[in-house]
Amino acid sequence: MLAVERKALDECGCGSSHAHQGDDGQECHGGHSHEHTHACHEYHEHIDEEHYGHDHACSSHHHDHGECHDHHHEDVVHTGREFAHVGQDVPQKVYILENLSCANCAAKMENEIRKMQGVEMATITYATKQLKVAAREQEKLLPRFREICRSIEGEVTVTPRDEVQRQPRQEHAGFFADNRTDVLAIAGGAILFVAGEVLERTAANPMIASAAFIIAYILLGWGIVFTAVKNLSKGHVFDENFLMSVATLAAFAIGDFAEAVGVMLFYRVGELFEHIAVERSRSQIMDAVDLRPEVVNLVQGDTVDVIPAGNAQAGDLILVRPGDRIPLDGRVEEGESRIDTSPVTGEPVPVSVKPGMEVISGCVNEQGVLKVRVEKPLSESMVTRILDSVENAAASKPKIDKFITKFARVYTPIVVAVAMATAIIPSLITGDWNHWVYTAITFLVISCPCALVLSVPLAFFSGIGAGSRRGILFKGGVAIEALKSVKAIVMDKTGTITKGSFEVQQVTAVGRFTEKQVLTMAADCELDSSHPIGSSIVKAAREMKLELIRPEKSEEISGKGVRAVFRDGEVLCGNKALMEMHGVDTAAYRKKGYGTEVLVAVSGELAGWLVIADVIKEEAKEAIGMLKARTLVTAMLTGDARDSAAAVADKTGIDEVHAQLLPEDKLHELKRIRQKHGPVMFVGDGINDAPVLAGADVGAAMGSGADAAIEAADVVFMTSSVTAIPESIGIANATGRIAIQNVTFALALKLLIMVLGFAGMANMWMAVFADTGVAMLCVLNSIRILYKRV
Length: 790
Prior knowledge:
This protein is α+β, with helices and mostly antiparallel strands. Helices cover about 45% and strands about 20% of the residues. The chain has 23 helices and 29 strands. The strands form six sheets. A seven-stranded mixed β-sheet has the order 17-29-28-27-18-25-26, with helices on both faces. Helix 21 links the parallel strand 28 and strand 29 (about 715). Helix 4 packs antiparallel against helix 5 and helix 13 (about 475-485) packs across helix 22 (about 725-760). The longest helix is centred in the last third of the chain and has 35 residues, at about 725-760.
């Protein structure tokens, strides 16, 4: 679980001494002291409501969270990875399964490899054609992996991923060129089938029509029958080839030649279109997430050489022209431009970049020519990390996928047994063998589980791809499955609902002073500050182009603020206690709303005060509204002061506020929210949110692509936008619905055809549609998620 929370005030790194106080100017009482003493000549004291009860580490207090990481909840659906239980010392390796074309076969391969001695864990992802294995001495096991895969699907090759040369993307040559062999076989078989039908009605000798049907069957079905015989010798009885071979040959046996050829023709057509649909869906999803470059423009002196992207190293200088995708993570060395980050983050607004700024791979350079100094090679750059994240996510299988795989193992033998019983028992009673054998044949065709096994993983993979296109990285189907069940959304405040950056929200002047004068004097006192509050004051003054003057002398007053001496007088900048200590009349001071207030006095007279606050994200209110529209409960857990937290909740519409919490307190509140409302999703960006993230049903991170976020969270919001929360839930709900639709449709239609077949109202053509036709429709239904508005 992720926890990368940035508490800006205490991690400013300035080396200054910061004393944070509550509304009354007293020290915080959140269970620990917040007076940070460092070796420095600056001291800042502000009435810091933003960080009451901080839950982060500092030199003056420590919390041992060791015990917090060992808790377990039986009712929590932890979105752990398939390999979570495997020891860290066990090597894990990924293999590419080329020519894998059968989802049910993939499930069988996975099951057989898992049974192998020495294999700790194995999973096959049909959507990406990848086999991931955790085992020692995998070089010795590889021949056995290959043997198992070939025995189940003869054309499959198993190659370690690091040995597979990445080929440049190739455009499809066209439907006919890509499927020449299948198209010719189907066309020839179809012509002979039509000829046989015509000859059966016109030819004087029925053997002519039979010969046409037999030749058509050989053309269409010889490969299927041959594969069935080969697999039968290896003990694979209930595969699709065997079932289709038995069904069509049985039709020949009862003299229904036309039906046998027609069904094989329909089956081949269905298989072809199913294959095309699956490959197209794979291609669409992978094109959305595989942003890796094939080449980069390497700058060497005055020349530019085109080299493979994988050959570029950290420190190389590369050229990125307008319209090019930034190939590798790096830092701009020369040039200025605007870059489109939407392919990576989903954020539609272009970002300006100039020398010294970081750029991430996958973004598109829109305007100027850039020279970028590579900081990470291809294997470590963002484009590769995103692809790895999606591929690993696809390997994390949800419960419904595992259930369907197990169900398919039972379903096929049961339907085959029913088919045998249908062929024998009623025939012995009625004597009508042709009718009941034909009915049994339809059952055999229906018994193929491919549509079922294919329907769920492709739906979840499409959901993962849809999230990636929007800058949302799901860490597996398990995360999506858990997310669609949440009833409450629990959020941290700083960095999640707010930006984690401080700005001057309001300047109030009293008496003879103006707002500009108050801001200028405060900025003068804070010129040397690197504290976020002091920096925000200086920034605001410079944005207004105010002229700032460094004080002739400044004195830090411990726990209260700064006294600065200028040519025209003395200025006090700090909290109310500082004013009272120097006898400043603060009767005009009125505490208002949300934020930290810094009082300013000149020569003993109150000049005014400034309100500095962590800025609420612009989209936060809209996003919270979207969550509430889904009837989800929204809650905020924060270590900040109650007034500050309540103000943020009031502005955004959050239902429940729990403030002044230590990390362990957050966990207790999370448990209480779960007991009250049901499964919870926690969204944070804090390193000290680890206990509560681990205790949530789904842990999500505002990461903007941070390494720690990508590695640790169940869901990562690359944009750090609050609207990503309802979007992720929308994708999860749509994915779950489509998976259920696929399973329900496939099972219902198969059951309907079986009932109709038993009643004598269904034929083998309908049975073939219930197999390949349903599989193709499930594929098309699944890829709707990529284009669905959520």
